[in-house]
């Protein structure tokens, strides 16, 4: 039985009394969107940030990238650049769109693009997520409207990053002290900065001179306001009392009572973030039963993922068959499967010489639902595998994995919305401290796939890597993490699997 | 009296030094700060880059001495997340916390003292029972639960008060009431117990025998002795309200020091965590000192000890 949390009680109580406070749509009349999320944003720019809220959401409202990836088709479309091509394996050339204005009226030129790329790729400048840029050697202006991006080595998913994470800043944006001038937060995007309160809120308004022909379209709203509200119950209360129009990551148990409330839309949606059970095959003090492949297979066969997804993870989630998200380049579905079969699990354990006396350390992330890891532990105990479950903050969890202190880790990864397997598997299987399997064949295949831009060769390498991870059961892929969005039902909002709510596409209904 | 104050100040300085060593060590060993700073999406290489750039590869004692040297010169360091001086970050947040703390404390005293006096003057009466029930509920109910109930009733159902934020005085009403209700029971019960005890003493009987009015006896003679323990406890409660309102500030998304502490702990912004702990510790030390001095002034016997 699951406990009724205070938040559930509140959502249920408030839903029951929904007639008391009719849902207000004053924001609709003002054409304004107010949304909230848990993290507090302490820097307004998209680079000195760890949070999706700043990097992706506000980042793409105020700034534009060179190219645009269509959320539905995955196709690259022109944004600040109208044409682009691979000159060779390590050089990308972009032809810029003419007449694009920054919010202060200046016109975009190659100098701005070169400044941005040379700034973010310089390790001295210490932008937060180095892996997003550490494959860039430099940028060079060929003429006033043409830019070349030089890569350190072939990096096939380069365009994914260019389209998603590399917002183009005006030249000199960060000044000499590596900090953006709060009074000069200028971009080319459909919205311009009005106000930023560190750790609390951010407000942007429509940019009237946004260039024609952008796939983002002309700004549909007059104003968008972000607020940081750490407690999900408070976010819920604000949404129900008309203080907010849109929230996300609504916990599954709160979403249910909320769904019946008139004036609100509650939508669970699938994301690219996959949860996996990572198995440690390294030598451990006192021996490691997981070095026997049959034990790893037994663990995989012991877990009924379908039931966990249906009963616990909830709507929007599906069982993952391969150790990657299905739309990612290189994610082959044709891999060894380990369906739920507890009898087979017991047989395998017996064959491996274990008679129900295995005790394993199982770690998970505190920011995920506790029931997820408990259900996994429950299924394992049914085939005779006992687990010591520990939920840890991400840093501690990561440290435990790197320090060889856990047999099993229930973790997840969102690939930053990058639609390429390298954004997922290269972080966990290339013999770094996060690699629990340390399989040289897998590592070599993954690294080789990033050294060529030949798509067929890359697919062959990923076939090897993904196939071997599944065959050797280094990971048991579990499910896709759902995100539940809740918003005013008059708001026209579409969810995409890359956890990137494209607010520039949002508008109020008639 | 001066010697007494100086002695207390010395003890306070030692307490602060001990706390600084503890907080610096604990924050650095609790979890690898490089991994927390690098964030959930960081690769092993990102983590190593952070470790080197922030100097986490150097021994903790070396970093502690450097940090302490900075503090002595008034430099609390820079926030890892905000890349601004910690002193600026904390100073920005103090007004919200101080406003909330003083409002809640004032409200708690304004409720607890009259209620304690009334209950103490009529022990075991219906009004005493009612006051004790009020105290019992306040002590038993978790702060976060009361806060969420308040939000449901006054924000969601009635729409009278905002559910979160700190941009106007209206935003302080709910959090102040919740915080005050947490402190009221202790203060009320202490006042009640003090009044009951003092009202049975000889000098009160003498005062009554002299024909003084009941209100004069209570307010002039009884209350001064009855509130002696209240002064010490008030200092602790005040410290809690100024430093310990993390839960309240987080639930109501108020940009105070408590919320800052929550953010800093979540993201391993160690210089901010350390500064917030030091500020809270300093508040406690100063309040305890103030309570000691006030008690010594109220009761000259304490000075002689």
Key descriptive features of the protein:
heterodimer, A: 510 residues, alpha+beta, 15 helices, globular, disordered N terminus, B: 305 residues, mainly alpha, flat
Q: Short description, anyone?
A:
The complex is a heterodimer of chains A (510) and B (305). Helix content of chain A is 28%, strand content 23%.
Structure description:
The complex is a heterodimer of chains A (510) and B (305). Chain A has 510 residues and is α+β, with helices and mostly antiparallel strands. Chain A is 28% helix and 23% strand. Chain A has helices spanning 6-16, 26-30, 52-62, 110-121, 158-164, 232-240, 252-259, 293-302, 305-313, 342-351, 370-382, 394-402, 422-425, 440-449, 455-471; strands spanning 32-37, 67-69, 76-78, 81-88, 91-96, 136-143, 146-151, 191-197, 201-206, 223-228, 246-247, 264-279, 358-365, 385-392, 408-413, 475-488, 491-492, 507-508. Chain A has a 10-stranded mixed β-sheet with strand order 8-9-10-1-11-16-12-15-13-14, sandwiched between helices. In chain A, helix 11 links the parallel strand 13 (358-365) and strand 14 (385-392). The longest helix of chain A has 17 residues, at 455-471. The two termini of chain A are 44 Å apart. Mean pLDDT of chain A is 88; it is low at 1-6 and 15-24. With 305 residues, chain B is mostly helical. In chain B, 79% of the residues lie in helices and 0% in strands. Chain B is built from 15 helices and no strands. In chain B, helix 8 (170-199) crosses helix 10. The longest helix of chain B is centred in the middle third of the chain and has 36 residues, at 86-121. Chain B is flat and about 80 Å long. The mean pLDDT of chain B is 84. The chains are: A alpha+beta (510), B mainly alpha (305). The interface between A and B is large, with 53 and 50 residues.
